[in-house]
């Protein structure tokens, strides 16, 4: 997808919890933050991963997930990979022995992938994407593939928060060179305070040159388009992370059926957390 924007992309940083600051409206222009219009209700198809798991002939189905969690040692949010299983006899889904709930936050009907959240005694501990991973032996070593789907972003500045909903994603993969890239764009932007439409501090989130490792990809360079303060994540505390996973039990040599990824950028000027699923 070619994202046209007169403002050139700003490089954030090469990639190697969940608290949100309180929003404060500008007393002179309060509606710039809060918005004046309620967003139209858009129906998004729920994930069919649940049905896929139930229909499987296997009693136990392996699951793989990528989530964002707060590091207890450093207090920073980090992206982590966790494996688990669906157990038919117990009708349970777990990652590292923690129960997960499937969500339909990312728009689209995806067969083997879904958004998820983990909870411990009612408190969300991690959110991300999960699904039936592509088998290592099914990963192509030549050719390329393109995936398109949905995306969502949480964006937070020191004085405002934005839910960027119903976005689109495009993922391009070159299996021969072992590289992947992704673009998240075309969002409906909603103030976290009022729930109304508003301007967001970025237009698109772009990942380039991520390295394919095993059945996923990692690292790369993250850039944004947009001209507000969050378009650059800078400062001594800046951190950028990107992780992706291929999903789907395809035949050897075929491209995986679906892909999911998380991108997390955080610094002194704000926070971006993007999630995509594409097929």
Total tally of structural domains: 1
Distance between the termini: 15 Å
Instruction: Please write the CATH class name.
Output: Mainly Beta
Main sheet makeup = 8 strands, antiparallel, barrel
The CATH topology comes to Porin
Strand content: over 45%
Order of helices and strands: EHHEEEEEEEEEEEEEEEE
- Shape designation: globular
- The strand order across the widest sheet is 8-9-10-12-13-15-16-17
CATH architecture: Beta Barrel
User: Averaged pLDDT, please?
Assistant: 84
Q: Helical amount among residues, as a percent range?
A: under 10%
> Count of helical segments?
2
Structural class: mainly beta
Instruction: Kindly state the number of beta strands.
Output: 17
The whole-angstrom Rg is 19 Å
Low-confidence stretches: 1-13, 17-25
Give a concise summary.
By secondary structure, the protein is mostly beta strands. The protein is built from two helices and 17 strands.
Please explain how this structure is put together:
- The chain has one domain (10-16, 45-278): Porin (Beta Barrel), CATH 2.40.160.
- With 279 residues, it is mainly β.
- Strands 8-9-10-12-13-15-16-17 form an eight-stranded antiparallel β-barrel.
- The chain has helices at residues 31-34, 49-55, and strands at residues 10-14, 60-70, 77-87, 92-95, 98-103, 113-120, 123-131, 144-157, 160-174, 179-185, 188-191, 204-213, 216-218, 221-225, 239-247, 258-267, 270-278.
- It is globular, with a radius of gyration of 19 Å.
- The two termini are 15 Å apart.
- The chain has two helices and 17 strands.
């Amino acid at each position: 997808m070619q994202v046209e924007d007169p403002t050139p992309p700003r490089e954030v940083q090469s990639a190697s919890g969940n608290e949100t600051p309180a929003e404060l409206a500008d007393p002179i222009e309060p509606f710039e933050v809060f918005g004046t219009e309620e967003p139209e209700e858009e129906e998004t198809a729920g994930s069919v991963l649940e049905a896929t798991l139930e229909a499987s002939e296997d009693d136990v189905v392996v699951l793989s997930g990528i989530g964002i969690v707060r590091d207890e040692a450093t207090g920073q949010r980090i992206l982590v990979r966790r494996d688990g299983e669906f157990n038919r006899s117990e009708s349970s889904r777990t990652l590292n022995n923690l129960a997960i709930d499937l969500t339909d936050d990312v728009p689209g009907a995806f067969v083997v992938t879904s958004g998820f959240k983990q909870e411990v005694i009612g408190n969300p501990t991690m959110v991300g994407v999960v699904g039936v991973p592509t088998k290592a032996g099914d990963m192509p070593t030549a050719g390329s593939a393109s995936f398109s789907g949905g995306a969502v972003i949480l964006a937070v500045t020191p004085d405002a928060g934005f839910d960027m909903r119903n976005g689109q994603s495009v993922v391009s993969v070159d299996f021969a060179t072992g590289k992947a890239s992704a673009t998240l764009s075309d969002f409906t932007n909603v103030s976290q305070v009022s729930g109304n439409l508003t301007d967001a501090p970025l237009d698109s989130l772009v990942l380039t040159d991520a390295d394919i490792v095993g059945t996923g990809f990692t690292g790369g360079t993250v850039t944004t388009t947009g001209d507000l303060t969050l378009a650059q994540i800078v400062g001594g505390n800046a951190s950028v992370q990107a992780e992706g996973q291929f999903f789907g039990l395809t035949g050897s040599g075929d491209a995986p059926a679906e892909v999911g990824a998380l991108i997390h950028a955080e610094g002194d000027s704000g926070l971006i957390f993007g999630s995509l699923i594409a097929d």
